[in-house]
Amino acid sequence: QSALTQPASVSGSPGQSIIISCTGTSSDVGTYNLVSWYQQHPGKAPRLIIFEVNGRPSGVSNRFSGSKSGNTASLTISGLQAEDEADYYCCSYAGSGPSFVFGPGTRVSV
Amino acid sequence: QVQMVESGGGVVHPGTSLRLSCAASGFTFSSFGLHWVRQAPGKGLEWVAGISADGGKTSYADSLKGRFTITRDNSKEMLYLQMNSLRVDDTAVYFCAKVTWAQYFDFWGQGALVTVSS
User: Which of A8, A84, B29, B37 has the most CB atoms around it within 10 Å of its CB?
Assistant: First the structure.
């Protein structure tokens, strides 16, 4: 159960687009299309923003989108807004158990 | 609406035990798997344990080495985490979370802080 890899921080200006990568292995991200992304503001619980690689829950802005290629998943935030400043975590299903593995989180600064 | 409320956190000494509870409502409790995820101060999320809808199957992070036990009571719509032999590095906010059939966490509690300190 090794953690996924994410950049520690990403920054952008309002209106710009940023991409956060999430690299796993053939035992998790590479095998399952079950990557999810969570947004967490300080002192708050995580909030689901992307499921099953590129699914978006109702109520989540369409400025958030996800993709995957091989062992790496990505979260794109387009039209960056001040409210997007938060920590973002990727998570992958890692096999029957079930078991899950998270990335270390990426701090987004606007 | 879905609500998940953790309780039972507190300050304990190393080597002692603590049981966390999570009261859930707003969904068919007995139909969904539930998990615990923790977050050490200033650190990232770490999956801790999960339990199937009927409670018959459990799974744990390798790092816990059998010290934690996850259980549920579907009649009371409660989730539990029994934590034994607590260590300083178990200090964290513990979140309970509901998982969907597609293996993602769609609802989270607000978290319970566990502090292990001598």
Answer: B37
